[in-house]
């Protein structure tokens, strides 16, 4: 394939606006998959993705399509829709020249529509706006076209209207991709240069790297070098995902070389041919953990089984960080860092479902900092107040949040933001009925119940997206819980000074009530955790630790 008959594109959208459904329709239309798999969402492969109906890990698929007498190779790179996985979205976009921006024509523009548009826009991609779900009775095409025009400055004639579910106008998508998205810039005859944009571990094949080739080509037997580490590898297999691995020389595809572990596959790395060094790609920013939580086996005999499961899962998800942790109350465990609370929930669910291990996951906490250097991953790391000077040496992570809401809920949303220590930066109307609010909030407020409260006070209509906004000085304290004058490590937490009273009272009430109830139960007594001279029923203890 010459580069003028190749297009690399992705589909971006707010959660549930229909990306996976559209991807399936396109794979069917090109005969890449058969119609029998209808609505099975072939690109969402993890069981947790099927259950929750969300895409966690980006996958790619290549398809062939005849257009105006010419055969094209179209490489689709699927992207996750949830804010926790924004990092996967940006690395997928780096392998594309264009993207389909999908908007639900009943819901209109939502917070992640805006965030994803700007990610694509800042990477200079061609954006094709598409209204989906036009079959729904609640679809309001003129209204959503107007929002797209106001917010992203697309003209109406640039917008396609489709139903990914029923297939209406689905045949307009691939021609638009071919005509509007530029061909990749690479040259087949130049030196080999490829971007590593995703990788995973397969039990049979080993480490598989997804690459996007900017120039030159490779074949089995070639030697390639990682620009990041300088290590040389033998190319063992190359091909495209269509949707399974297929030996074919494409431009976005997979390469298997003799990497022993996934940790050798640095996303954002550049591969080149031995003896033909190239200027490497700038690389991706490393994903940073935004929440930390303690993880322990519910049954301490399952410690090594859990260790194996964590090793296996992190093989394919290098964005989880793992540290050992020992708790006086819960024994041996780990402190894990995640991109967000959904990422954390998905990880826990996979441990339980794919490995059958009962686990205890503590309250999530955000990475506070002391003196700009030391990261406080757990309350245990919190510095002794008497040893630090003044109040100004502690910092907490902040996020820039975008909220889109119908205007009737604006007042309550602004109150919610101020209750959660938010600082409003702007309010913009995206049409006569909807407002986009930009607000800076402490990350710790977001990881608790902000999202649920926002959803309930807007009857589900407001949406939220946020990105890292660095650190700010903060008046932080560590709250310790004493049971019979002894501190219990697993119940300690770090929080803003203004929250101490509220949370302390909730805790106290809970401990007393739960202990009273559970002490009544005879069986409860068999499984007590001895803390100092007081025994707390195991169930009460766990429910306090994991209460969200
Ligand atoms: P994430 O991967 O989690 O971001 O979601 P997604 O954007 O891939 O959405 P998905 O394709 O899973 O679709 C979400 C829901 O919308 C599913 O129940 C689909 O069946 C439904 N859906 C998708 N497209 C259409 C459409 O054109 N019309 C109607 N009525 N429903 C649709």
From TrEMBL:
Domain of life assignment: Eukaryota
GO molecular function: GTP binding; GTPase activity; mitochondrial ribosome binding
Keyword Protein biosynthesis: yes
Tr-type G domain segment(s): 4-185
SMART domains registered for this protein in UniProt: EFG_C
Membrane topology: Peripheral membrane protein
Gene Ontology CC: mitochondrial inner membrane; mitochondrial matrix
Reactions catalysed: GTP + H2O = GDP + phosphate + H(+)
Subcellular location: Mitochondrion inner membrane
Keyword vocabulary terms for this entry: GTP-binding, Hydrolase, Membrane, Mitochondrion, Mitochondrion inner membrane, Nucleotide-binding, Protein biosynthesis
Family annotation (InterPro entries): EF-4 (IPR006297), EFG_II (IPR041095), EFG_III/V (IPR035647), EFG_V-like (IPR000640), G_TR_CS (IPR031157), LepA_C_sf (IPR038363), LepA_CTD (IPR013842), LepA_IV (IPR035654)
GO biological process: positive regulation of translation; translation
Chain positions recorded as GTP binding sites: 13-20, 78-82, 132-135
Coarse class of the protein's main subcellular location: mitochondrion
Family: Belongs to the TRAFAC class translation factor GTPase superfamily. Classic translation factor GTPase family. LepA subfamily.
Annotated function: Promotes mitochondrial protein synthesis. May act as a fidelity factor of the translation reaction, by catalyzing a one-codon backward translocation of tRNAs on improperly translocated ribosomes. Binds to mitochondrial ribosomes in a GTP-dependent manner.
NCBIfam families listed in its UniProt record: lepA, small_GTP
Name of the protein described by the UniProt record: Tr-type G domain-containing protein
């Amino acid at each position: 394939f010459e580069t003028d008959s190749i297009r690399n594109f992705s589909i971006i959208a707010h959660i549930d606006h229909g990306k996976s459904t559209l991807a399936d329709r396109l794979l069917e239309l090109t005969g890449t998959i058969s119609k029998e798999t209808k609505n099975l969402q072939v690109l969402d492969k993890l069981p947790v993705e099927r259950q929750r109906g969300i895409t966690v890990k980006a996958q790619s698929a290549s398809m062939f399509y005849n257009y105006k007498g010419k055969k094209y190779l179209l490489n689709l790179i699927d992207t996750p829709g949830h804010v926790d996985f924004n990092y996967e979205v940006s690395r997928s976009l780096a392998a594309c020249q264009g993207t389909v921006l999908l908007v639900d024509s009943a819901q209109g523009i939502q917070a992640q529509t805006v965030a994803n548009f700007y990610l694509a826009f800042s990477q200079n991609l061609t954006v094709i706006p598409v209204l989906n779900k036009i079959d729904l009775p609640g679809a309001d095409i003129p209204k959503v076209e107007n929002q797209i025009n106001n917010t992203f400055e697309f003209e109406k004639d640039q917008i396609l209207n489709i139903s990914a579910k029923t297939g209406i106008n689905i045949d307009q998508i691939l021609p638009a991709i071919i005509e509007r998205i530029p061909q990749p810039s690479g040259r087949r005859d130049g030196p080999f240069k490829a971007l590593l944009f995703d990788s995973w571990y397969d039990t049979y094949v080993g480490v598989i790297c997804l690459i996007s080739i900017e120039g030159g080509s490779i074949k089995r037997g070639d030697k390639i070098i990682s620009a990041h580490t300088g290590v040389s590898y033998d190319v063992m297999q190359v091909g495209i995902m269509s949707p399974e691995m297929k030996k074919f020389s494409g431009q976005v595809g997979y390469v298997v070389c003799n990497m022993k572990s996934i940790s050798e596959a640095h996303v954002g790395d550049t591969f080149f041919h031995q003896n033909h060094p190239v200027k490497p790609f700038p690389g991706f920013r490393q994903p940073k953990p935004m929440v930390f939580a303690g993880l322990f086996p519910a049954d301490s005999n399952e410690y090594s089984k859990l260790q194996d499961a964590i090793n296996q899962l992190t093989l394919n998800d290098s964005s989880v960080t793992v540290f050992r942790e020992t708790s006086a109350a819960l024994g041996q465990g780990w402190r894990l860092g995640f991109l967000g609370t959904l990422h954390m929930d998905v990880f826990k669910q996979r441990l339980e479902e794919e490995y059958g291990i009962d686990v205890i996951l503590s309250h999530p906490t955000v990475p506070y900092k002391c003196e700009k250097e030391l990261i406080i991953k757990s309350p245990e790391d919190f510095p002794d107040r008497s040893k630090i000077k003044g109040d100004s040496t502690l910092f907490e992570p902040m996020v820039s949040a975008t909220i889109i809401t119908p205007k009737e809920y604006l007042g309550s949303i602004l109150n919610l933001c101020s209750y959660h220590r938010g600082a409003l930066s702007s309010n913009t109307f995206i049409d006569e009925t909807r407002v986009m609010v930009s607000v800076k909030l402490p990350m710790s407020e977001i990881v608790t119940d902000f999202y649920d409260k926002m959803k309930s006070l807007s009857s589900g209509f407001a949406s939220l997206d946020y990105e890292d906004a660095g650190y700010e000085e903060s008046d932080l304290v560590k709250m310790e819980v004493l049971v019979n004058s002894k501190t219990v490590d697993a119940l300690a937490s770090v929080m803003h000074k203004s929250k101490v009273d509220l949370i302390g009272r909730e805790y106290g009430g809970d401990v007393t009530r739960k202990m009273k109830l559970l002490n009544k139960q005879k069986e409860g007594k068999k499984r007590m955790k001895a803390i100092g001279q007081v025994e707390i029923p195991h169930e009460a203890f766990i429910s306090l630790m994991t209460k969200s």
